[in-house]
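Protein Record: Sequence and Backbone Structure Tokens
======================================================
Tokens: labelled as protein backbone structure tokens, with as many entries as the chain has residues.
Task: work out the structure tokens from the sequence, keeping to the layout shown below.
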Amino acid sequence: MTIQAQALEDLLELLKIPGQPSEEALVTAHLCKKLISLGVSERDIHTDNAQDQSEYGGNTGNLIVHLNGTGQGDRWMFSTHMDTVPGAVDTLAKVDGDWIVSDAPGKALGGDNRAGCATVLQVARELLALNGQHPPVTLVFFIQEEVGLVGARGMNLDLLGSPRPSICFNFDGGAPNQLVTKVIGTERFNIHIEGVAAHAGSRPEKGVSAAVIASLAIAELEQNGWHGQIDRSEGKGSANIGTLTGGTGSNVVMPHLHILAEARSHSVAFRKTIIQMYKETFERVVSTQQSSEGLRGSVQFSPGPTYEPFDLGNDSPVILAAQKAAQSCGFNATCVTNNGGMDANWIVAHGIPAVTIGVGQENAHTPEERLSLPRFHQACQLAVAIATQRE
């Protein structure tokens, strides 16, 4: 079977498996079974306890695999993530010409990032065919990327092998001829609003609505250019109100509301400025709302998952290695900036320079998601070239 046919078979198998964030155990089990069938020893397959530090719990940790070849050279790392967005659970996939698309109405495909898993599997398959005649390699399949890079944040570095990897090639969304070398930083934060409960029919004036506090604050932030895309003299970034949860019933003035929001910027200082503006706005609005009895609500902010920006520079050894392999595959790979977080943010923070290489997804996280087969096969070709053509 050709590498293209094998990669497609692996991908279609993976797309069938549910595995939203914190529920990746079935994906782990499938990958372990596949890797063992390829010849990986069970003693070289490890699962860390990254789920223990997760805000979301979880039924498995990161899957870490050692391919300890006898060849000379640094240990390199190839990584991807196992989880898909919840909207891809129980999806169906079909091949439609040069595309793989979802065949389940309203469901995302889940190519983000089962395509990455299939790509890294090809690295294992080709290296194992060399019977150990290669430098050491570590494969990592992360959990909980979609909820803030939580798996990569909690990765057990001691399980990466000795010596630890010197560089990493991370496979995720986008095109394989674009190397993501500069990535934005993101900070999620929680906004807890406490109002004053009252009967919404007989005495609403005695209440303070947490919903009203939130709506006034959000409207002010939007009007003043602090929500959505932010481009100000102080800096550039973005902010978003992601989820709102609260209330006890339509007959009660809303007594509490929880908001999960985020701020992004390539500048850590400006990201902090955005969040401070949210704090000041919500606190000011709280002070303007009171009940007929003089009672006011309150607001508290607390941090959520955060990852910092990075910029590798175009002459980083990991970039040069990827570009050299791309040229051997017959195409040029250019460096790009990405404004969405990826596991590479935390891999770099852990001290391992990491470039992210696309595997062909488009419209990820939506029912319109699709995967380009030519680009997916190109990504597999590039990954194998990186792993096998080292000097």
Notes: The longest helix spans residues 268-288. The chain has two domains: 3-183+309-388, 185-307. The longest strand covers residues 235-246. The chain has a mean pLDDT of 95.
